[in-house]
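User:
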Amino acid sequence: VAFSPDGQTIVSGSDDKTIRLWDIEGSPIGQPFVEHEASVWSVAFSPDGQTIVSGSRDKTIRLWNRQGNPIGQPFVGHESVVLSVAFSPNGQTIVSCGGDKTIRLWDREGNPIGQPFVGHEAPVNSVAFSPDGKMIVSGSDDKTLRLWRGNWQSWLDVCCQRLGYHLVSEDPALEMTTADPGAILRSENPAITTTQKACATCQKYAWSDEAGRQTLARILRRQANDLARFGQPEQAIAKLQQAMAHDPNLRPELEPLAAALAAQ
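Assistant: Predicted structure:
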């Protein structure tokens, strides 16, 4: 069972192979949704409340509108009963798990995204997205919970953090940000290095929100530390100023460092 996002409607799945909608007084809404060929084990509303996803013992996943009409074809890929389904917070991705011990991602047209997540040693009974959509949690009969990265942005975050560590150790003077990262990515100028394009990618997609800016600020601070250690105080001060611009909360800590470097 699940509530709609506005809390006014309940959806239920059943061993009778149907899905039903109810108001909060317990009155049925419309007719049962009938297409599954076996018990319906899991149901969920999309974030906008207009679409319902269901998972069944018939090994399929289906999408429905609120009138009970199936949307598209069944999602086929699980080799056993589908035990849990959920929408991502943006409503564009569906996660499922089942008796075949796997977790799978799908787009709304029923196309699998990537390979199945394999790691549990027994049927996976439940899955859910984190509120930011970057992580998936699963629970299994093997008595464990597991966390998984749920979208390409979360993998990019990992890559950009590693890029930061690489730059600190290999090239702390490299400018990691630009006024127009898109121009760097679009450019065919051979003088633009792969590292510069990698930084532009991270700036555009991974360092653009508040958490990303904080990550970038920490990397810039480490660059500044290395530049100061290498006897380049002016460049170190510039990096500290960039770090403070991306994360103002660091200002009380970094301003004294910049002043001390300027006094050298």
